[in-house]
Amino acid sequence: MSYRVPLDLGALRAESPFLADLGMTFLSLDGSGAVFELEIAERHSNAEGRMHGGVIASLLDAACGLPVRFIAPETDLVRAVTLTLSVSYIAAPKGPRVRATGRITGGGHRLVFSSGEVRDTDGSLIATATGSFKRLAPAAPGPTSKEPT
After folding, report:
1. CATH numbers and ranges of domains, the chain
2. What pTM did the predictor assign?
3. pLDDT digit string (tens) for 29-60?
4. CA 60, 66, 67, 68 torsion: positive or negative?
5. Pick from 47, 58, 68, 143: most CB atoms within 10 A?
C-alpha cells in the first residue's frame, strides 16, 4: 500500500472496509483536497427509494477527513479521527452517481477544519458539510496506530 503521493488510491480505499463496501471510487488526493465518486445502487436507498442520508453523511465524512491525512507531497499520510461533522441536506440526487469533494479550510498541525460537498451527475448540490478532525500518528501499515505525545 502506498502512503506517499502519488497514492495507490485503490489500496487507500481497501484500508477502510466500510468505505470499500459502500463502493466509493477515489479519484484524487493532494494539497487541494480529495475527490471521489459513488455509483448509486439499490443498497444505498432508504425506505422512500432515495439515497439514504447516512450514506451521504458517510461520503461527506470521508471527503472532509481524507484531505486532513495529507500533509505534503513525498510525506507519509497521517491517521485522523472525526471530532465533529455537521451535514446540511439540500436535495435528493438525480442520476446514477454522485461526486464528493473535500478540502481543508483551516486549523493547525493537529486540529484541522475542513468542508465538503456532494453533487449529482448534473452538478446539482446534494449536501454540504463542515467538520473538525484530529491528526494522529503516521499511517504506516500495521495493526494499530498510536497517537503522538
Report:
1. 9-138 (3.10.129.10)
2. 0.85
3. 887 899 989 999 999 999 999 999 999 999 99
4. positive
5. 68
